[in-house]
Design a protein that fits this description.
This protein has 2 helices and no strands. It is elongated and about 55 Å long. It has one domain. It has 71 residues and is mainly alpha-helical. Keywords: Membrane, Transmembrane, Transmembrane helix.
């Protein structure tokens, strides 16, 4: 069970990184300063991951609340 959660977390991190890089390279890449573009891509990755986790945990808590209340 723990191993499956670790695999799921790793898979979600990789998918998140790919999505963030595609978004960043599509809209914000200026082709001049490689280092700042990598930093910007990592910041965007962190923001997307944070938003995804907040939404996922909200949905998970909502489901637990429904089970607790009995709806």
């Amino acid at each position: 069970m723990v191993r499956m959660k670790k695999i799921k977390a790793l898979l979600m991190a990789v998918i998140n990184l790919v999505i963030a890089d595609i978004i960043y390279l599509s809209f914000f890449w200026d082709g001049k300063d490689f280092f700042s573009n990598i930093i910007g891509s990592l910041i965007l990755t962190f923001v997307i991951f944070l938003v995804y986790n907040l939404l996922f945990h909200y949905w998970e808590l909502k489901e637990q609340y429904k089970k607790y209340i009995g709806d």
